[in-house]
Design a protein that fits this description.
It is a single chain. The protein has one domain. Helices cover 44% and strands 23% of the residues. It is built from 2 helices and 5 strands.
Length: 120
């Protein structure tokens, strides 16, 4: 872990994280729609290949922002983010799943998503 967040620091960063997640979800859906249309030999109401390339570029920018902030991106559909942290002196990951609007879960490094527990 390069950066470790306190719970307060992670929660302070959350509004910016959520704004980017919201945009990412929209961009991801638009890109998928255009790609499906292109694969079928059609044109989406959202555009064609140039617009798909634009969505791909924006998606890449959004995804790289999370790493720049010290977050660990574990998945993009659904989006799963981890904030490296410590609880009681033990390294953990505070985790946020797409659709969650508050940071309320963590898991030990070795336990992964299946070992999620509520933050006290």
């Amino acid at each position: 872990m390069d950066r470790s967040f306190t719970l307060a620091e992670a929660r302070a960063l959350l509004p910016g994280v959520l704004a980017r997640i919201d945009e990412l979800v929209d961009v991801r859906a638009s890109l998928i729609e255009i790609q499906a249309a292109l694969a079928a030999g059609e044109r989406s109401q959202l555009g064609g290949l140039p617009e798909a390339k634009g969505y791909q570029a924006r998606l890449s920018e959004l995804l790289s922002w999370f790493g720049t902030e010290g977050l660990e991106l574990k998945g993009i559909a659904p989006l799963l983010l981890d904030f490296p942290s410590e609880i009681d002196g033990e390294p953990v990951l505070l985790c946020l799943l797409e659709g969650e609007r508050e940071l309320r879960w963590y898991h030990k490094l070795a336990h992964g998503f299946a070992g999620r527990r509520r933050i006290d």
